[in-house]
């Protein structure tokens, strides 16, 4: 009886070690496969969002130009073009806050000065306080647009890294 148990114990021990090594190998392989898949998915997401990130860079550049002047409707052509592109980005990525940027641009457009405000001001048909208030609202709206752009860009950065 003693002789028959000895071969079974060595076989069981060998089988156990082989199974453990095989299981560890399987788990490591699965981990690296899932990790590689996650990295590919993140890289694809970053590639997909890259044009939108650059679009927001363009918006910020236009905002910088608009900060230097009291904007009239004629000055908003480039911003209107970018607004429609941001709206398209919102459709592509509804989970990002592109809609917030569009809403802030709409608020800014409501604060533009009348087209012929210089003539009205010279003819004293419009109060200076009204123009100053519109100018202040423009500055505040520009800041809000920039903050919204920064927030979306930070979210894109977070998703890309």
Keywords:
mainly alpha; 161 residues
Structural overview:
The chain is mostly helical. It contains five helices and no strands. Helix 1 runs antiparallel to helix 5. The longest helix is centred in the first third of the chain and has 66 residues, at 2-67.
Write the layout of secondary structure elements.
Blueprint lengths: L1 H66 L9 H16 L5 H13 L6 H6 L5 H33 L1
Helix pairs in contact: 1-2, 1-5, 2-3, 3-5
Q: What structural category arises from helix and sheet content?
A: mainly alpha
Question: Main sheet?
Answer: none
Q: How would you describe the shape? A: rod-shaped
Give the low-pLDDT segments: none
Secondary structure tally, helices = 5
Roughly how many Å apart are the termini?
Answer: 64 Å
* Averaged pLDDT: 85
Helical coverage, percent range: over 70%
Give a brief outline of the structure:
The chain has 161 residues and is mainly α.
